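Exercise 7. Given the encoded structure of a 351-residue chain, write a plausible sequence.
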């Protein structure tokens, strides 16, 4: 693969953009540590799988959103190393560790397949289907079209849940939560355990992220704000805990990623899609209130119209000693950033 300069990358991605209202990449935009090989169609959302035996061999999973699409695996240099079976418009993707299938602990990637109204589940790192053709979602609803997804692993019992959003849906039950488990025949099944989520009606809900350790789920009610709920369905509490970022975004608030600096501290990064930047909020809240998430910084990035992002604090080797941020960009690519670059930009804003 030829070396891609920031200037050539910007040229390529601008030519491929679908909107005539895009903001240009700013001169002070952070340069990516690596850029992936392009996919054939339209990248949308990434997830980071940590190799527990050797973190330097961790991989990035990303969706290529088209009728003839799929999910791709990349190494830490951005090289495509594997592609899944063909999927019909896979949208968002997330990863969970250690679900039991046929008595064996298995790491999985779960993606929404919009044109079939299903969840598709693949074992990692081999991307082998383990879903017996997929799990139907939003059964009985007039509005289905699954888009966003985040996986929640409950601390007390390691139960794994998929929290799923759709292209559009009713206020109060926009999101459905599914318990994922072994169906007894070597595949994963899903059981609806909860329906929740307020919706402004302004645009849609796509970006969803879960903080497993603190037990919160965040989602972007696009062009309205970022919402926060408890993630555990057994809490039987569907009250909205927080609404923030309402005046912070140029238009769409999109992909969400949560970077952890401690047991309860860190950052919530949210794509300011049309401004080509990330808005940064304190994971722990502010003023002694864990639900008071005020803006800390805006970080301009090389990405164009970022839809989805993921982040980790795990040492992935010399290029990413404190982890990495992965962000989708138009041009059918994902951009990788050494976390130290992101942290330096946040610190600069705090001075």
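Solution.
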């Amino acid at each position: 693969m030829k070396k891609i300069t920031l200037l050539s990358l910007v040229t390529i991605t601008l030519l491929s953009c679908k909107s005539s209202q895009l903001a240009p990449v700013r001169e002070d935009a952070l340069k990516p540590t690596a850029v992936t090989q392009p996919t054939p169609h339209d990248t949308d959302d990434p997830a980071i799988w940590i190799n527990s035996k050797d973190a330097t061999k961790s991989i990035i999973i990303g969706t290529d959103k088209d009728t003839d699409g799929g999910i791709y695996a990349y190494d830490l240099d951005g090289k495509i190393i594997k592609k899944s079976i063909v999927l019909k418009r896979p949208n968002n993707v997330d990863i969970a560790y250690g679900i039991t299938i046929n008595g064996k602990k298995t790491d999985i990637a779960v993606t929404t397949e919009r044109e079939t109204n299903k969840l598709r589940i693949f074992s990692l790192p081999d991307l082998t289907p383990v879903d017996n053709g997929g799990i139907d979602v939003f059964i009985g609803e007039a509005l289905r079209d699954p888009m966003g997804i985040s996986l929640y692993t409950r601390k007390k019992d390691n139960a794994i849940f998929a929290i799923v959003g759709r292209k559009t849906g009713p206020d109060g039950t926009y999101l459905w939560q599914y318990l994922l488990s072994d169906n007894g025949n070597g595949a994963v099944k899903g059981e609806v355990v909860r329906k929740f989520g307020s919706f402004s009606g302004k645009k849609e809900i796509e970006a969803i992220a879960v903080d497993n350790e603190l037990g919160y789920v965040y989602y972007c009610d696009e062009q309205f704000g970022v919402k926060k709920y408890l993630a555990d369905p057994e809490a039987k509490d569907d009250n909205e805990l927080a609404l923030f970022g309402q005046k912070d975004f140029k238009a769409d608030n999109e992909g969400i990623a949560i970077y952890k600096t401690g047991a309860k501290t860190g950052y919530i990064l949210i794509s300011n899609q049309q401004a080509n930047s990330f808005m940064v909020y304190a994971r722990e809240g502010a003023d002694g209130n864990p639900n008071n998430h005020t803006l800390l910084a805006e970080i301009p990035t090389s990405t164009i119209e970022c839809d989805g992002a993921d982040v980790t604090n795990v040492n992935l080797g010399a290029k990413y000693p404190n982890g990495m941020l992965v962000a989708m960009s138009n041009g059918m690519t994902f951009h990788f950033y050494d976390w130290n670059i992101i942290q330096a930009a946040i610190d600069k804003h705090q001075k």
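Remark. Residues 339-350 form the longest helix (12 residues). Students should compare their own answers with the one above.
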